[in-house]
Amino acid sequence: MPQDTIYSETNPGDYVILPAGMDSIPKEVKEYLEHGIVEKKPANHSDWAPLAYTIGALVLIWIIIRIRDGKSKGYVALGSMVNNESDYDIIEPGENVEPEEPDYLIYEGSELNFTSEEIAKVLNKRSRYFIHLSDADKEKFLHRIQKFIERKTFFIHDKSGFKEMPILISAAAIQLSFGLDKYLLPDFPNIHIYPEEFIATEPTIRCLEGNVSDNCINISWKHFLKGFNLPDDGQNVGLHEMAHAYYFQNFETGNYIDHDFVHTFSKFNNSGNKVFEQEKVPGNDLYSEYALKNFQEFWAESVEIFFEKPIQLKTVYPDLYDAINDLLNQDPGTAPYLV
Description:
The structure is a single chain. By secondary structure, the protein is an alpha+beta fold. 46% of the residues lie in helices and 12% in strands. It has 13 helices and 9 strands. It has helices at 27-35, 45-68, 109-112, 116-126, 128-131, 135-150, 164-176, 221-229, 237-251, 259-278, 295-308, 310-316, 318-328; strands spanning 3-6, 75-77, 97-101, 104-108, 153-156, 190-194, 198-200, 206-213, 216-220. Strands 1, 2, 3, 4, 5, 6, 7, 8 and 9 form a 9-stranded mixed sheet that branches. A hairpin with a 2-residue loop joins strand 8 (206-213) and strand 9. Helix 4 (116-126) crosses helix 7, helix 7 (164-176) packs across helix 9 (237-251) and helix 11 packs across helix 12 (310-316). It is globular and about 50 Å long.
């Protein structure tokens, strides 16, 4: 830990680095944040090393200033709240919210008191998975999501909080774990929601759309919503980060372990290792290059593909599909929401 989902927008100009004061950021820092790297001239080490050190120092100074300015806990939010859509339900300031500091809201899940009707309303708008559950499974889903929300603290790094935020992020966890006996992730009580991609400063500087670190699940709301709005593109940052969290809950914490999940994971390991190597061969491109960074990222992306491209996964890698089917006790390849 941590496990990261790296932000890799093809057009960096599509997002806002800062809502204000951009001109105060040195040009080199802007380039670092926009492109992730600074273009290097084909010269010897002595030509570019001083520039690299200078840029690194400027980035660190800028981040330290931002953190001291209220963006603490090793993360720096970028941009302001994205798409304040009219159909979002705002959590009113007096409705169990503690403003710790500007642009930083804390919602105790145990005090949100969402009704089943409120949760169902949000899920019926946003979750194809929930819409196509049977009536009995919908009741089970609603019961689980209420229990999950009650045990979490939601940190919203902006001036407004929407009911959709805790509900939909919790729904990603319940979707993944719907076939498991244990689903509450007690070792991850804190969920941080950033309006857009964010910078992590520990252990290295990197721009993220989500990650799991210590006892926190960190999510970019913009990228999270994209996963819900495009439910069949194989990319879902919510499912991705929850996959990391469930793995660490069961294999690293020593607490609240789902023994069936742990036992069956060996089947995923066996099939997954074969696919992991196959995907490195040119022409096999079901997985992204980032998924091949390590087996943890491969696991998380496998969950995304399993739910969003089940037919393709089942066709290309049937043994791996069956392994995830057995592991999660779900078969989205035959689920009615694919119709």
